[in-house]
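Recall that a protein's primary structure is simply its ordered list of amino acids. Everything else, from secondary elements to tertiary packing, is in principle encoded there. The following example makes that idea concrete.
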Amino acid sequence: MINDTIKVLTDLQEIDVKIHALEEEKRKKPLVLEEEDKAVTILKEKLASLQSSHKDSRKEIDQKELFLKEKEDKVLKLNVQLNTIKTNKEYSTLQHEISGVKADMSVLEDEILGFFSRAEQIQKDTESAQKELEVALKKRDEVAKEVNAAVAEVDKALGELYVKRSEFAEKVPSGFMTIYEKIIAHTVNKTALAQVIEEVCQGCFMDVSPQEINELMRGKDIIRCRSCSRILYL
């Protein structure tokens, strides 16, 4: 009776170990996709930053060009005033003012050229980032398909194992099944049974006493390891 139950439990344990391994595999599969999502997010943030920088550069250019236009208009007005000047002193003063405005215009023109150069580089970087993002999105979609396909395969295998597990579980007396379930709930590798080889529990590698060995040989009751609580069998 006990030996028959132990045999069924060892078969059940083999199934549970496979189920546990597949469930872990299923849990880890989406982690690969998470890495791809992170890469896409980083590239999206990079692209958004570049687009914002390009927009700011255009604003700076527009503002500088507006200032330049104001300076040009001022020079035109001052040149008109030159025609009405009657004294050399006033003429000299106005010429000096025009020279100062033109110097400001020269500075603005250099600044505008600098912003144009910066905007052009940002535009190139933006186009490059856009291409990187497109590649990352394509890769992410490919990985997603692979992950979904892999998860589907795992789910199929798990479904078959769950059915098989139910069939074996029905063969185990309810009291023994309760003990089994409690043990696997507290073991990392989902093993509730451990074979005894040369008086050593193969679950925790602790010694099994001669008395316990004798009880196992009699096969009248379930014997559990004093160290790891697993169900022992020879």
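The domain at 28-171 is CATH 1.10.287.1490 (Helix Hairpins). The first strand starts at residue 193 and ends at 197.
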